[in-house]
Amino acid sequence: MVKLYLPYGNMKHLYGNRDVTFHWFVKDRQEPVAPYAQLLENYKQLTPEGKIQAQRMVDELFSEEEFKALRTFLYEKYREDLRTGILVPPINGIRQDIGPNRALVRPFAICPDDESGGFCRLSEEQDYSLPFAVWGYYTEPLRVRRLDTANR
Description:
Blueprint (H helix, E strand, L loop, with lengths): L3 E8 L8 E7 L9 H4 L8 H12 L4 H15 L4 E5 L30 E3 L13 E5 L14
Antiparallel strand pairs: 1-2, 1-3, 2-5, 4-5
């Protein structure tokens, strides 16, 4: 059975900020973890626009193997642990957007990168070693957005 993971976690003392919560997501996934018709509820009945939106959402979720790899990477490099939500498909991919702090409400990649929140481009950091791209979205303003310059 396929499970999808929605990892999140705090990065303590990051850039002088305390406990900034990141919602981690796979960036620019090339292939879904399983066929979309298996992952998404009523996939065949979705409009073309609905399919695109639902595919974007599910493509940001992690497989179990990807989640474990990210968790190990963040712990070994930053001594930070992750929590996660777990979804068992088929999932509803067309819920209304109700904010970035709820699981699977929109693709994080389309969230604003402004004074209200933004991205940690983890996979663009020095010494990033995972075979897939990962970004994190946060809603607290930060002065700097590079983890490799953080006060550890």
